[in-house]
Amino acid sequence: MRDSFLPFARPDVDEASIEDVCDSIRSGWLTTGPKTVEFEREFAEKVEATHAMAVSSATSGLHLAFLALGIGPGDEVITTPMTFVATVNAAIWTGAKPVLADIDSKTLNVRPELMEKLVNERTKALIPVHFAGRPCDMDPIEDLASRHGLAVVEDAAHGLGAFYRGRPIGSDRGSRRCSVFSFHPTKNITTGEGGMVCTSDEDLAERISVLRQHGMSKGAWNRYAAKGTPHYDVLFPGYKANMMDIQAAIGRGQLRRLDQFNRRRREIVAKYMIELSDQPGLILPQPQSDDTLHSWHIFTPFVDVDVLDIDRDGFMAAMRELNIGTALHYQALHLFSHYRDNYGWERGDFPEAEYVSDRIVSLPLFPAMSNSDVDDVIKGVRFVLRSHLR
Hints:
Elements: H1 15-27, H2 34-47, E1 51-55, H3 58-68, E2 76-79, H4 86-92, E3 97-100, H5 112-118, E4 123-126, H6 138-148, E5 151-155, E6 163-164, E7 167-168, E8 177-182, E9 195-199, H7 202-211, H8 245-256, H9 258-275, E10 282-283, E11 292-293, E12 302-303, H10 312-321, H11 337-343, H12 351-357, H13 371-387
Parallel strand pairs: 2-3, 2-4, 4-5, 5-8
Antiparallel strand pairs: 1-9, 6-7, 6-11, 8-9, 10-12
Helix pairs in contact: 1-8, 2-8, 3-4, 3-7, 5-6
């Protein structure tokens, strides 16, 4: 057992970023201001997007994207059952109905051919989720959207730093297309809470920018500055979903370290893949295709319950006894009571997602992990699994 608990994730905020936060506090400009604007510019450049709009969370970013696309009551959006519930909740808040297509259990991503079977006259958007940081197969999804006049909202909460066919996730893809990123403390970079919506669609960007701050006209954040104007217009009833400068100060420092962070994530994953490759009781993630770069937000092997005398939850409990944290990403959302009761979904509807949901576990993965930490995880996994082989 380790002397201290190793969490499955922990943010790494450097002293320069902390000092930048202090600078914001000393300046008196705490909420949306010049640092947020600069963070947006730097983020757009990093992911090769025309527009980047900082928001209070990825969840709010998804919600605003759906509203900006005009999605509402009577509409349907198609997504995956293997995602965090925010993906569907954001659509439900608009009055739309989520429709689920099963996944490929090897990639953990939605299957485009199953999405196509669900398209009808009520379908308004496709929501691919880049699970764990592995890019979805976007070409057939984009083709499906183009043939049926559908919007595409990429849930890229896990995908910062991932590439699909030479292009970063978040890069420009045309009209009625956007990508939404998360800066939660467990993500590849953090602002504490926060998110970013990226798009090349000028109208969509304008509408999201206005929606995120009470419906006030673009640039209203500057009304308290020396060269700002106190006058603004309210274009429609909006929301309170803007990012603060004290968050953006953290985010700018984090963004500068993204490539370093992701390199370390890949190093840790490579060691897991080598050292655990011959361990009975564990099914490792499948190799990525040559035309993608995985961002490795989380490392999610399967606990092979068919050869063990414990289930996945038992494995997690045993690891915790060794002072090693793990996490569950995720229970398939159609198995939660609210969605089961309100949408009629039940076990058996999405067998691939259920197979994954019953076995998946997240092992510790964060850039500040030492090599000794990684060794402890490997030893812990081996000990628990060998102790419970049938």
